[in-house]
Amino acid sequence: LGQRDAKDNGGIPSSTEELIAVDAEHNISFLPLIGMNKISADDKESLDVDRTIIGHNDEILDLRILPTPIARDSNNESIDTNQDESVACRPQKIAVATNSAQVRLFEVGSYSCEVLDGHTDTVLALDVSPCGRYLATCGKDKTMRLWHLGTNQCVAVATGHTEAIGATSLSRKVVRYEVGGKAAKNGGGAFIVTASKDRTMKRWSFPGSIELNKHAETELASGKEPLALSVIGSARAHEKDINIVSIAPNDSLIATGSQDKTVKLWRSKDLTLQVTLKGHKRGVWDCQFSPYDRVLASSSGDRTVKLWSLGDYSCVRTFQGHAASALRVRFLSGGLQLLSSGADGLVKLWTIRTNECETTIDGHTDKVWALDLAQDGKTLVSGGADSRIVVWQDSTKEEEDAKRDAEEQNILMEQQLSNHLRHKEYKQALEIALELDKPRQALKVFTALVENDVTNGNDGLTSLQSHAKAWPINRTAQVLRYCRDWNTRARNSHIALLIIKAIVSSIPVHKLASADGIPEILAGITPYAERHFERIDKLYASSYLIDFTLLSMGSLSINHDEDFRAWEAKTKLILPQKSTDSKLNLTGTAVSGGKSQIASTNDTDDEVLTIGESDTSSTGSDIESDSDSESGDEADSSSSS
Fold this sequence. Notes:
This protein is an alpha+beta fold. 26% of the residues lie in helices and 29% in strands.
């Protein structure tokens, strides 16, 4: 027993005694003991559960988001839920099958839970009506139960299958739920379809909302049993276990998927087979009709999701990307996109037009058996074998707005950066470049800062040191990362090493060594710095060749014209010969094979001698040689060179 503080209608604090019970499903239930002191020992009174705390969710087998109930007035006409506060303010709930005989209803946000007890064995599948007032559940106890969500009571039971029922679905047209009486029994109203491991599919009549509401409010309170649903039609659907059954938005077709690798389409009126869709290489786990187009999506154990046309029954798209079996599939964004979940623990978003995976959502560590979308398409709920229920919100609009705002802010700051650079306000420009995380702009600012200091007669290091001392350690690490990238190119190595010198000379070594990531960054800078130093040393050594060449060439300055004229006055120019008969010996004084000439040795005359010419004309050779003589006659004339 426990005691809980509460307030009565007048706001006066009061205490309420409660009975706290723990069951085998790890649930803690709170049962108020109001008025129990007035009951005698002979009376029997049942206790109502106030609230339940779920201690553990087993493997999530299936779930559905309960839509907002469509309220109706006394004339059976729908009421706008936006104006009906009692309906619009109801919290959104999720019905979950958790590998147990209980069905749990969680409130989104608070996750307070209500439990539906009725099945005697594990619940395998469930479905909710489009009006949000009824829930169908089925399981290993070979029954299908219909629950009234207004009172959380079981109002009808369907029995007839010989094995466990693994799939169920409610008709999708809202107006048919109001049909009752003889028309409903003849199949004119809403209906429920179940598929079992006995490989049969059955269609059950729906009694009508008026009869079910009356039964839930009056007859069940008096102790009567739930209504028994009657079978309208039955058919042997597949040769292996049936995994899924789905009803078209207009209630005209029923689709079933089985372990026999096929998807079959049936006419809902008489359960006659219309077509068999073949193409999957393994069992089909899910199939869903598009609420907007005449297409059907199916997911299979062959890791693919296929899109089938209901016009010619051909496969128009195949989506590949899951690393394991694709277990569930849903349509999104007005039928333009698909959501699929797989045994790899991933949920993937596909664009049908491009046949590409837009994003992958990782929120589970095991198979994702359950997947459902809210009516507005902005909320996605997934559940898996890891016992987790994950609620996802569509943040596309928020991300686009944030991206647009970031782009506008980026353009504004880039304009401010350009203005600061134009006015040589380097400090403000550097802060903007580092804040925007733009290495290229930061390099321009650093280069302009150093060039400005050099122009003013400074070495450029002092200004860099003043900036480095004012940086926090994370900003210092950011600049060092930039320098590591800049240092890989020779043309940026000078400014990068100058910044590094300013940092290491202005910040204590122990502070840099203790900072996260800075030692690794400096270790990456060292190899390129050594390479640049080697290159500069080689260039400096090679520069001595220029000095040696200039020294060997002598002075080429135009200011030494007088020395050149003196040298020219003392030097006789030698022009090339006009004609020659054989080789010339320029190293000796004798010339053979050419015309003789007499060279004057008068230094006072500026004569120009031409090799092969003389002052006197001669018509023949005056040189005679005697082969028997040792010395021979010398030439009549000799030339000097």
